[in-house]
Design goal:
Radius of gyration: 43 Å
Helix content: 55-70%
Strand content: 5-15%
Largest sheet: 6 strands, antiparallel
Distance between the termini: 61 Å
Order of helices and strands: HHHEEHEEEEHHHHHHHH
Shape: flat
Oligomer: single chain
Number of helices: 12
Number of strands: 6
Structural class: alpha+beta
């Protein structure tokens, strides 16, 4: 048998509230409720924690305050999720509006292309093919296909070599017959009826007559393209209305959330007057934690400043170099007189020794300053180790 001891009127109630919340989620997760976006307190295991928590409180209002706080947190999370969903709906709504405008522009350009096309008759068939800078008018589809194949051979080299952006193979019903390069096609080329900056693509096949028929069918497809745009605009407008309603829909739990917030704040003030507000204890802990973090940050900043100061001071090697130690070595090596070389070294060493003594005094002063200040803190060993590392 397991006995659980709690102190009536202590902070144990809040601790058991935390265990209750955790156990609620774990219990429902184990029961396989993975599809739910929120968990409810409905298990028998949770009730055992709730009973212990109630016994520890000694004040039913503390219990009520904790329950209200949990409900407030849950609803606040749901409100945040609702606001995110609404913001997403508003962005999608704006995107739909942009899609309608873009489709309307596309449809207007197709209508312009139709006006160009309708200035020329479809029957009798007539096409103009460029053959080595000479425009040849052809009225037979098979012959036109052969001529186009020859025109492609004339121009494809310039297009593939990048000499021109696209080549004009001829003209049909007011449109340029264009040849362009493309990585989207296995052959590396695309063929289109071009009108200003619009291209309507057709297929070039092994059949000469089939190529021309594909070109003709493309010129007759504008009405279908406009109908497709009209249907797309209609669909986008319906979606726009739905998204507008979704983005303007109020949160269904707002009244419940406001009511809980009001009760929570009122009960919080009441418990604070008698010194039993659990939030006050939490706030004290937060203040202690913030103070510890601030003190730690300040100490680390001081360590970095001291280490930086030490690194800025000259090293032994630096002093040797600054006092022309390298030049001294060259002089000693070049001197034929052994005694003269000894004198040079002795004199230079006196200078270096004096400089080192001065440097050591500076290091000692900084080291003393660090030790004195570190005694006021709990980080004496950390500072001492950092400084020793920087010095030696």
């Amino acid at each position: 048998m397991i006995f659980v001891y709690v102190i009536e009127g202590s902070f144990d109630g809040y601790v058991w509230q935390t265990l209750e919340t955790k156990m609620s989620f774990i219990d429902q997760l184990m029961r396989g409720h993975l599809h739910a976006r929120e968990m409810d307190d409905i298990s028998e295991t949770v009730l055992s924690f709730a009973e212990i928590k109630a016994a520890a409180s000694g004040n039913h209002k503390v219990m009520e305050f904790v329950v209200l706080g949990n409900e407030k947190k849950k609803l606040s999370a749901l409100q945040t999720a609702f606001e995110k969903d609404r913001l997403l709906a508003q962005k999608m709504f704006s995107a739909k509006l942009g899609g309608i405008a873009d489709t309307e522009k596309h449809m207007a350009r197709i209508k312009e292309a139709m006006e160009v096309r309708d200035q020329y008759l479809a029957d009798p068939f007539e096409i103009t093919i460029d053959r080595r800078s000479e425009n040849v008018v052809i009225t037979e589809k098979a012959e036109a296909g052969k001529a186009m194949r020859a025109s492609i051979a004339d121009h494809i080299g310039a297009v593939l070599n990048g000499k021109v952006h696209y080549a004009v193979l001829g003209f049909y019903r007011g449109f340029e017959i264009r040849l362009t390069t493309s990585i989207m096609n296995k052959s590396g080329t695309l063929y289109s009826l071009g009108c200003r900056d619009m291209d309507f693509y057709f297929n070039v096949s092994e059949s000469d007559e089939g190529t021309i028929q594909s070109l003709i069918n493309t010129s007759k497809s504008f009405e279908k393209l406009i109908k497709a745009d009209e249907e797309k605009i209609e669909s986008l407008k319906k979606e726009e209305i739905r998204m507008r309603e979704e983005s303007e829909k109020p949160w269904s739990l707002q009244a419940q959330f406001d009511d809980i917030c009001t009760k929570y704040e009122a009960l919080s003030m009441e418990l604070r007057k008698v010194g039993e507000n659990p939030e006050d204890e939490l706030e004290k802990r937060r203040q202690v934690e913030r103070a510890m973090v601030d003190e730690s940050d300040t100490t680390l900043t001081e360590i970095m400043e001291y280490v930086t100061t030490c690194h800025q001071m000259p090293s032994y090697i630096g002093i040797f170099t600054a006092l022309d130690g390298d030049e001294l070595l060259l002089q000693v090596a070049a001197s034929p007189d052994e005694h003269a070389a000894d004198d040079l070294v002795e004199e230079k060493m006196k200078t270096i020794h004096a400089a080192v003594e001065t440097m050591e005094e500076d290091y000692a002063a900084i080291f003393t300053q660090i030790i004195v200040q570190s005694r006021k803190k709990k980080y004496s060993q950390v500072l001492t180790t950092a400084v020793q590392y920087a010095f030696f």
